[in-house]
Specification:
The protein has one domain. It is 71% helix and 0% strand. It is built from 4 helices and no strands. It has helices at 11-44, 61-83, 87-106, 112-131. The longest helix has 34 residues, at 11-44.
């Protein structure tokens, strides 16, 4: 008689995993809303941003506004999927957080402290969505 033992997760670890996904969803929602506002600022009046003249990555600020607006809107939509514990939302959430992290990196000269803060936030979202087991 052979029995195959399947590892069981404790209630504590499953609650922690659910809490991480929920917290990542909240952080992605907040980051997405802030990206939407940043995009609106770039589209409406790009005089708000201070440009660095010798920056390697030179972009039109109105284009950056549209990029942030679109990525932020997608992040908000994905965060709703995270609240319903959808697996697709975790996968897309990692991708959109990575894109927002890259966009924040490329916009460091315009808002250095805020961009670095958002990089840390998006890195945490990526970590929180990746550390949870698939069946949690």
């Amino acid at each position: 008689m052979t029995t195959t033992a399947t590892p069981r997760r404790s209630q504590k670890s499953m609650a922690a995993a659910g809490g991480l996904v929920t917290f990542a969803g909240v952080m992605l929602f907040i980051g997405g809303v802030l990206a939407v506002f940043r995009g609106i600022m770039g589209i409406a009046d790009d005089d708000v941003f201070v440009a660095t003249p010798n920056y390697v990555f030179k972009f039109d600020l109105t284009s950056w506004g549209w990029i942030h607006l679109i990525l932020g809107a997608v992040a908000v939509l994905v965060s709703f999927g995270l609240f319903s514990a959808a697996v697709w939302a975790r996968v897309v959430g990692v991708g959109i957080a990575a894109l927002l992290l890259i966009a924040s990196f490329l916009s460091i000269p315009y808002y250095p402290v805020w961009s670095i803060t958002l990089i840390a936030l998006y890195a945490f979202v990526i970590w929180a969505l990746c550390v949870v087991k698939r069946d949690a």
